[in-house]
Design goal:
With 362 residues, this protein is mainly alpha-helical. It has two domains: 133 residues, no CATH class; 177 residues, no CATH class. Helices cover 85% and strands 0% of the residues. The protein has 13 helices and no strands. α8 packs antiparallel against α9. It is elongated, with a radius of gyration of 26 Å. The two termini are 47 Å apart.
Length: 362
């Protein structure tokens, strides 16, 4: 009898290891699909309140509610993409009418102004150095490669977009698809607790991602207003990119700072550095810092306390640990993962003192 139990245990362990190995192999080889499903699930959580509103208040069917919500997402997406068309068109015209001498002259003029203002000596100011600069030579040779890469990127984006839309519709239509799949791996005695945990996680993460959308909108308004006032071309696109980068904790704002500074400076490359470029860059950076102040001391604390119900210091520690262990991906997914983990601990280990302390606000 004992030998049979040992044999069964070994067989079960081997089967589980094989299944786990197969799962890891599949995840590694279809990582693009996993990314598409993750994006779809996040968008489904954002659209969940609208679906529930249409179902509960207007008494629409799940199919109709999901369709309307998906159409809203598509309208927003098309609106955002349409804002990038002028920028892409301008860049396309610049490529078709590429004047390397003009680029070199502008580059030389801009660097010379910086040199005159700061007193620093840049060796690249010399015309011979600029004419023979490998950057420009390589840039001309790389244009076909860049265009081919752009076509490949556009193709991948199209495939990804349709994959996300397809999965998003079904996630909106039936929010229990993932839950039903996960229940297959849950033991019979834990099914009810698992369902409770999943429902709490969906509610918390839905509020969290909606809070992030509000956070982006607030920063977008501040950045756009600043850039619009000082006359930077394409202010909405630049503001949107900088606001979107803010989703990467700590690292995103740093990238956004350099991005808004660089794009502001290059927008006035033909103007005087001391009279135009520098003051406008300072104004743009000041608006960026003001937006970060509002975000760090008003928006983020409110979002964290009201959505995931965590203390800002607690969130800070979690983000730092996740970023150290998993890099940029860890920074982005730290809070959602930590929130899901807290809910699971709350449901399954609610009598543990440490868990009780960690999840007292849930």
């Amino acid at each position: 009898m004992n030998s049979k139990l040992v044999t069964d245990g070994i067989v079960n362990a081997v089967i589980k290891l094989l299944f786990l190995s197969l799962l890891i192999y599949l995840i590694f080889n279809v990582k693009e699909l996993i990314i598409y499903l993750c994006i779809s699930s996040i968008l489904a959580l954002i659209g969940r309140p609208l679906v529930l509103l249409l179902q509960n208040k207007l008494k629409l069917s799940a199919f109709s509610s999901a369709s309307i919500t998906l159409i809203v997402f598509l309208i927003i997406l098309m609106g955002l993409l349409s804002l990038f068309i002028p920028l892409l068109t301008t860049q396309g015209e610049n490529l078709s009418l590429l004047n390397v001498d003009d680029i070199q002259n502008k580059y030389k003029f801009f660097i010379k102004q910086i040199s005159d203002f700061t007193g620093w000596n840049f060796p690249s100011i010399d015309e011979k150095n600029i004419s023979n600069n490998s950057f420009f030579n390589y840039g001309l040779e790389a244009i076909p490669q860049i265009l081919n890469g752009f076509v490949g990127l556009l193709s991948n984006f199209t495939i990804g977009l349709f994959s996300v839309i397809f999965a998003l519709f079904f996630f909106l239509k039936d929010s229990k698809i993932i839950e039903t799949f996960l229940l297959v791996f849950v033991k019979e005695g834990y099914i009810n607790k698992f369902k409770i945990a999943i429902e709490k996680i969906k509610n918390l993460l839905s509020r969290y991602f909606i809070g992030l959308v509000v956070q982006i909108i607030v920063l977008l308004i501040i950045y756009y207003s600043t850039l619009r006032i000082i006359g930077v071309p394409n202010p909405f696109i630049i503001a949107f990119l900088c606001a979107l980068l803010n989703l990467i904790p700590y690292l995103g704002p740093i990238i956004g700072f350099f991005l808004i500074s660089f794009l502001t400076m290059t927008s006035f490359i033909d103007s005087s550095f001391s009279a135009v470029v520098l003051p406008k860059t300072i104004y743009a950076v000041s608006g960026f810092i003001f937006g970060q102040f509002i975000d760090n001391f008003i928006s983020q604390p409110y979002i964290f306390s009201k959505s995931v119900k965590s203390h800002p210091l607690e969130i800070f520690i979690v983000i730092i640990v996740a970023g150290t262990l998993f890099g940029t991906v860890g920074l982005i997914f730290a809070i959602p993962t930590y929130t899901a983990l807290r809910v699971m601990l709350k449901v399954f280990f609610e009598k543990n003192k440490f868990v009780e302390f960690l999840t007292k606000n849930i």
